[in-house]
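quick one before i forget lol
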Amino acid sequence: MMRMRPRSVFLATACAVLIASSAAAADDDSRWGVTIWGLSYHVNTAIDYEANNWGAGLRYYVSRHVFVEGDALRNSNRGIVLPVSLGGELPVASVGRACRISAIGALTVAFYQNIRTASDYVKWGPVPGVSVRCGHVQPNVIAVLRPSDELLAAVVASVTIRF
């Protein structure tokens, strides 16, 4: 089992941004996107969570800053998760002429299969995050929250390719 360190996640995201930075950001007419999921970091290290959460999803932009997305991916408990989200992206800064940093906020409903505890359940709630869009490539980092004293459960990384 391979664990991804936060430094590796940062390096992979930085490489994706640098490669895409030469792309023009004037493709705001892109309504569709394919999201590729891959990595997570969990705050609670006492449980043997899986850091590799491979999967894919389809995103559709209802308007320039509002999207709906459905995904299927392997979750950190070695089962599947099937989330459906309604979200928005609020541009907060530009990086040069080709890249834009946005705050992400979504309301998500997700079916979880938990192999570790042999249970299935549905969860819903807010999902905050940040994205850096350079042309058609958009790395995303989101926070998975939980209703407890320790609010942050995990940080998850994905890349959306818009077309």
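fyi Residues 6-20 form the longest helix (15 residues).
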